[in-house]
Amino acid sequence: MRDRLVEFARVRDWGRYHTPKNLAMALSVEASELVEIFQWLTPEESARITADPERAQHVREEVADVLAYLLQFCATLDIDPLTALADKIDRNEKRFPPPDIPATAGR
Description:
Helix content is about 70%, strand content about 0%. Helix 1 crosses helix 4 and helix 2 packs antiparallel against helix 4. The chain is an all-alpha fold. About 5% of the residues are buried.
């Protein structure tokens, strides 16, 4: 997908606009548009949002926009997003070990 997005931008000569700064800003805007969908919903309403096909489509489109800008950002800086995520999970597993759970818990 990252390569497809890079090619999409290349054939449209958008590369000059795809600087890390611009892509980070666009990513922030798209993430805000996703947040806006949920802004005034209750937790229960937000959990049911995909029950409405029109709203579900809107959420999918905003998710796609966020992911597209993130992948383009990663391509520009030569970051492998899955490696970055795996590294972050490794760090967080060390920083936030699971709580000690007594052996009798859940019985």
